[in-house]
Write a structure and sequence with these properties.
Elements (H helix, E strand, L loop, with lengths): L1 E6 L4 H5 L9 E3 L15 H9 L1 E3 L5 E2 L1 E6 L2 H19 L4 H20 L6 E8 L5 E8 L19
Antiparallel strand pairs: 1-2, 1-5, 2-3, 3-4, 5-6, 6-7
Helix pairs in contact: 3-4
Amino acid sequence: MKFLRTVRFDPSDAQVFERAAEPGEWAVSGAIAFADLAPGDIAGKTRQAFSNGFLGLASFGRSTFASVSAMTTEEREAALDALSAHLIAHYGAPDKAAARGAAEEECAFIADLAAEQPVNTVFAVRREFDENGRIREEFRIVIPPSGELHTRIWEIVEDDA
C-alpha cells in the first residue's frame, strides 16, 4: 500500500513547530490532535502545527511536507500501534479499542489520499476552522519549479573492478 512519510526540505520545521518530525517518519494528518480545541484556543507554534503540520508517527512531531511512499503490512501495523498508544497517552482515548478505531480511520484516510499518487509525490496540508467551528482540511500536491513531479537524483554505475 502507499502512505505518507515526512519530508524536510530545509530547517524551518524545527523553528516553527513545538516539535519537528524527523525526515522519513510515517505520517498522518494529525488533525485529531486539535479536535477538542476552539479557534480561540490556538496560538503560536500550536497554530502553526494546526494550520499546516502533518503528524510524524515516530516522534509525534510535525512536518510541513509529506511524500508518498510504499508501506508494508508490518509497517502499517507498527504505525497503527504507535498512533493508538499515542491517542491513549496524550488525547484521552478511553481504551485500546477506541484508540485503535481512531488510528485505523486516520491511517485509512492517508492511505486513500496516497493510493492513486506516484511514489515521491509531495503533499502539503492547510487546516482552518469553518464557520461552525469544525476543522476543515485541504491537501494539495506540491509541484517543483521545474514542473516535473519526479526527478532522478541517483545513477547506478557499474564498477569495473
